[in-house]
Amino acid sequence: MMLLYEGKAKRVYRTETEDVYRIEYKDEVTAGNGEKHDFLTGKGRLNNLISSDIFQYMADHDVDSHFIERISETEQLVRSVEIIPLEVVVRNFASGSIVKRLGLEPYQPMTPPLVEFYYKKDELNDPILTDAHVEMLDLATREEIESLKTAALKINEVLRGMMEKMRLSLIDFKIEFGKDKAGRIVLADEISPDTCRIVDMETKENFDKDVYRNSTGSLLDTYSEFYNKMEALK
Question: What is the pTM of this model?
Answer without folding.
Answer: 0.95
